[in-house]
């Protein structure tokens, strides 16, 4: 035991602020009573990571029913937004992987894969459009935030995102410059390949940080009931667009595998031709997991949309 | 028998307790050592559902007590468990001492 106000436990950061305000001091005292002043055992820390993350999801309205329907619809909409992020990564890799397919397959076999690819592209465009509309719908709330809180409140939120985007931009420019310096070659140097993978990871990291920032920021906005409903409907529409992208990619994959299986082996020198190469399996699984995530969000929205604006439901602590 | 909310309600049925006393009591009567996350997660859910309530803090330790709704929920859970125990006991023939 120490003094009456021990140092706050670092692991409490996993819990949302509202939870820490309510249970933080009591919880710290419990930890001190059980474990004394020493470091917490790993099992205790892991239980706090799990429990704290769950509390964050609950307070954000993503799981459970402890917050009002507006917050739950907002959380479910953000879940769909996260699914879109997964599709951005998987879709970009899919576009790169498949960019030369018309040249590698006989024109007579183009119809079905071309239809699948067209569906992917059209649904992706619809997804971008939905995002723009969602952004415009949130614009009044953003203006209100800037008027009341100002740039000083915004900057700490967006600083990590800004830095990560700059890092991703620098990594991308560097890799493109190096690639141009190497010029057209049958084999890519190993260093360039490794740098490409690292640059890709930096870009994915920047995307993740940007998403985390966006989500944290959206929870700070005072979004009206009407806009919450609009966001919910847009999220459901986005889920449909993601389903079309997945179906289109799957159609392309299956039809190409049936009619031109050699395409999958032609991109990687000396690799055996397989209708189900590892990159396609990974991309397919990524899209599927994103679709499941979006489906969970859309189902949650569908069941809650009629209750939006009903503030008699439980509220966030 | 590792349902944190049920264990907490059972412990509080005896009287108000703070987190550490709850964990100690549960360890003694059920042989279950609840992790910090599980214990306070369950406390938060029970309080949210109005099954327990917090009392004023005493030296940074906040005692909790079971509410009337919590007592009713616990009683119902006990009845359900009793039914299962009765059926299991009967089917195993424990009452007749056949397997005892």
Task: Summarize the topology.
The complex is a heterodimer of chains A (317) and B (100).
Chain A: H1 17-35, H2 42-59, H3 69-97, H4 101-104, H5 111-148, H6 151-182, H7 190-220, H8 225-259, H9 262-266, H10 278-304
Helix pairs in contact in A: 3-7, 3-8, 3-10, 5-8, 6-7, 8-10
Chain B: H1 4-12, H2 19-30, H3 36-48, E1 52-54, E2 64-66, H4 68-92
Antiparallel strand pairs in B: 1-2
Describe this structure in words.
The complex is a heterodimer of chains A (317) and B (100). With 317 residues, chain A is an all-alpha fold. Chain A folds into 2 domains: 10-53, no CATH class; 68-307, no CATH class. Helices cover 75% and strands 0% of the residues of chain A. Chain A contains 10 helices and no strands. Chain A has helices at 17-35, 42-59, 69-97, 101-104, 111-148, 151-182, 190-220, 225-259, 262-266, 278-304. Chain A starts with 16 loop residues before the first helix and ends in a 13-residue tail after the last helix. With 100 residues, chain B is mostly helical. Chain B has one domain (4-92): Winged helix-like DNA-binding domain superfamily/Winged helix DNA-binding domain (Arc Repressor Mutant, subunit A, Orthogonal Bundle), CATH 1.10.10. Chains A and B meet through helix 1 and helix 2 of A and helix 2 and helix 3 of B.
Number of H/I helices of chain A: 10
The CATH superfamily of chain B is identified as Winged helix-like DNA-binding domain superfamily/Winged helix DNA-binding domain
Broad structural category of chain A: mainly alpha
Strand content of chain B: 5-15%
Point out poorly predicted stretches of chain A. Answer: none
How many β strands of chain A by DSSP? 0
Oligomer: heterodimer
What Rg of chain B, in angstroms, do the CA atoms define?
16 Å
Number of domains of chain B: 1
Strand content of chain A: under 5%
Strand order of the largest sheet of chain B: 1-2
The overall strand count of chain B is 2
Percent helix range of chain A: over 70%
Provide the gyration radius of chain A in Å: 24 Å
Number of helices of chain B: 4
The total domain count of chain A is 2
What is CATH's topology name of chain B?
Answer: Arc Repressor Mutant, subunit A
Which CATH class of chain B is shown? Mainly Alpha
The dominant shape of chain B is elongated
The secondary-structure element order of chain B is HHHEEH
């Amino acid at each position: 035991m120490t003094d009456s106000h021990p140092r706050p436990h670092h692991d409490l950061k996993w819990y949302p602020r509202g939870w820490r305000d309510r249970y933080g001091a009591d919880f710290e005292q419990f930890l001190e009573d059980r474990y004394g002043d020493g470091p917490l055992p790993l099992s205790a820390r892991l239980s706090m990571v799990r429990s704290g993350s769950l509390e964050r999801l609950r307070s954000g309205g993503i799981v459970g029913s402890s917050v009002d329907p507006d917050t739950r619809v907002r959380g479910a909409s953000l879940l769909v937004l996260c699914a879109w992020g997964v599709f951005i990564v998987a879709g970009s890799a899919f576009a790169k992987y498949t960019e030369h397919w018309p040249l590698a397959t006989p024109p007579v076999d183009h119809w079905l894969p071309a239809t699948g690819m067209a569906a992917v592209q059209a649904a992706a465009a619809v997804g971008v459009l939905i995002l723009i509309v969602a952004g415009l719908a949130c614009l009044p709330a953003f203006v209100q935030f800037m008027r009341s809180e100002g740039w000083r409140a915004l900057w700490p939120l967006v600083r990590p995102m800004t830095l990560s985007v700059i890092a991703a931009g620098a990594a991308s420019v560097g890799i493109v410059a190096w690639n141009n310096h190497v010029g057209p070659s049958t084999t890519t140097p190993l260093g360039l390949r490794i740098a490409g993978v690292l640059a890709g990871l930096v870009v994915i990291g920047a995307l993740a940080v940007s998403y985390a920032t966006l989500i944290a920021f959206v929870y700070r906005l005072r979004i009206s009931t009407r806009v919450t409903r609009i966001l919910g409907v847009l999220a459901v529409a986005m889920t449909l667009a993601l389903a079309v992208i997945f179906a289109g990619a799957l159609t392309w994959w299956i039809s190409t595998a049936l009619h031109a299986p050699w395409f999958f082996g032609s991109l990687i020198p000396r690799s055996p031709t397989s209708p189900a190469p590892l990159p396609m399996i990974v991309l397919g699984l990524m899209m599927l997991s994103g679709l499941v995530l979006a489906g969970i969000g859309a189902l949650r929205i569908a069941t809650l949309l009629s209750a939006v604006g009903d503030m008699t439901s439980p509220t966030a602590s | 028998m590792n349902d944190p909310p049920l264990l907490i309600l059972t412990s509080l049925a005896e009287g108000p307790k703070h987190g550490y006393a709850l964990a100690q009591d549960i360890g003694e009567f059920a042989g279950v050592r609840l992790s910090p996350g599980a214990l306070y997660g369950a406390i938060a859910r029970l309080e949210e559902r109005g099954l327990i309530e917090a009392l004023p803090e005493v030296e940074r330790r906040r005692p909790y007590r079971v509410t009337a709704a919590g007592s009713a929920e616990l009683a119902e859970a006990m009845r359900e468990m009793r039914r299962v125990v009765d059926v299991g006991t009967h089917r195993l023939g424990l009452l007749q001492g056949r397997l005892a």
